[in-house]
Design goal:
- The protein is α/β, with parallel strands linked by helices.
- It has one domain: Aldolase class I (TIM Barrel), CATH 3.20.20.70.
- Helix content is about 45%, strand content about 15%.
- It contains ten helices and ten strands.
- The strands form two sheets. An eight-stranded parallel beta barrel has the order 1-2-5-6-7-8-9-10, surrounded by six helices. A two-stranded antiparallel ribbon has the order 3-4.
- Strand 3 and strand 4 form a beta hairpin.
Length: about 270
Amino acid sequence: MNNPFIIMSAPNGARRQKADHPEIPLTPKEMAQCAIEISEAGASILHLHVRDEEGTHSLDVDRYKASIAAVKDAVGNNLIIQATTEAVGIYNRHQQMEMVRNLRPEAVSLALRELCPGEDDVSEFSDFLKWIKVEKIFPQFILYNRDDYLRFKDYRKRGIFPDEEPFALFVLGSYQGQSRESMEASILLMENSIEASFPWSVCGFQDNELECISHAAFENGHVRVGFENNIWKSDNSLLENNAEMISHAARIADIARRPLATADLVRSTFNVRD
């Protein structure tokens, strides 16, 4: 197995604050320092959230530009910066798409159920994806449950995605913790990932993040780790920083005999603009 292993870092997310972990990066300066640490540990993609003055989730383009500039100054092109479009109950899909059109990020994450909630929205979503393709923006599609996965497969068959092999992220678990329902949903998605005929990654929450790393490394997938989803070690103590779990993922990749993907390799593989 020698498919290069993509380690994505989600270092802050939309919800956690300094009270949750003192090392969570919320400002451009903090994100720049975090970028240095995660890049050195083996990450090739930074999944970026920005916050407003009160620490609340934001899709403000100027805030994105400030954080992106700080990261670029710190690590150059050693990380692909993936802007999130996550709604968090604040933004609608038109505001999410407008942010992407105005920012034109190198990469972007798109929750299928947010950007295309129903059949009536497919045409507009398809046009948006065609624009993304023209702009050479690297999209990743977030799948939260089996319904998302089945729609994703259906859209592929119908040619909704401009790319024949769109990159997906399977979300295993939830912020609310493990329940019987979420565990069953995670098992189904894990099985779906194994059968997937497209590039995929997984992310987990709290105690299943370690399982996600091993699953991805040994099943030819990729992984996203970070304080957005988990701040804990297996012994229930706090991780030192975002780089610690990335270093663990790099060690698991080595055991699985998979070299770490660099940002340049990811750009080449997915035809991302320079």
